[in-house]
Amino acid sequence: MPHRFGPVRSVTDRNAVLSIVGDIIDQAVLLERPGREGAVLTLSVAARHKQLGTRQAVDPQEARAWVEAIVGPKWLPHFYAAGALSGSTSGGTSTSGRLTTQYFYLFLGADGVPQAEPEHQLGVQLTSLAPAP
Q: Which of 34, 60, 78, 102 has its CA 20 to 30 A from that of 128?
């Protein structure tokens, strides 16, 4: 069952409130690779206009800052940003509308130890949140 944090006020948009949702899924399911062991922790950061209730795009840097605030600096380098992957049209979730929700992934082995980005066919370029060398 997903866990929700928020709503919290956006620090970059005075009209927005953010919700951060965390979920864990088997790597075999997300990556469509039967037999693959381990899990993926997904954090998504979504925004709504605080008065109108409409979905809004989330500033990627603010989303990253919230992820860091939640997971801490020790875990942040193991996360990957996937960018804006979902949005909303007429109240439902859709990937055909404006993409507004920022997604972040943490790949964990069966032993619970963070792993590097595995080969995948997710259709998105993942960007490591580890500091550049």
A: 34
